Amino acid sequence: MSSKKTLILNKDQILQKSKRIAYQIIEDNFDEPALVLVGIADRGYVFAQRLQKLLLEIDPNRSVELLKVTIQKTKRSLESTTDLPVETVKNKVVILIDDVLNSGRTLAYGLGVFLNVPLKRMRTAVLIDRSHHQFPVFSDYYGLKLSTILKEHVEVLLEEYDNTEDAAYLS
After folding, report:
1. 94 in a domain, yes or no?
2. Buried b (16+ CB within 10 A) or exposed e, 32-47
3. One MF term in GO for this entry (predicted)?
4. Which of 7, 61, 98, 143 is most buried, judging by how many CB atoms fall within 10 Å of its CB?
5. What is the per-residue pLDDT across 131-160, written as a single tens digit (0 to 9) for each?
6. 28-32, 73-77, 124-128, 153-157: which has the minimum mean pLDDT?
């Protein structure tokens, strides 16, 4: 992996992309009175919190719930926990959120959490989609679609989690 970092999104661009995703979510779900944002820990959950805030600013009359999913990403099988019972999303529109979509494994595991729960609709949202999908998982909402080579790494820094200014780097 290269030690050289290239800035691909700065703080203002991340905010702009986040707002665009929030508007897309509202447009796609204009007739839904309630949405459930499911953030994948850790940065996906921080990103979900931001989207929740933006959605409520845009449409304060809509209910926007937040659920946190923690996935053991290094395991070969699904091991996860949620901060609320998964049954709370029953018959609702669920948007699964992460910071970066690379192979699709993390989002596939995130989808697996809800396989036994009847949902109205399931969508995915990511800040950056790298397009290196090994699993049949794609982003319905994304801030930036980025073509990279496999050995490159995308790092997203979010102020609430990393204690530094928002940024996304390619290295």
Report:
1. yes
2. eeebbbbbbbebbbbb
3. glycosyltransferase activity
4. 98
5. 777 888 999 999 999 988 878 899 999 999
6. 73-77
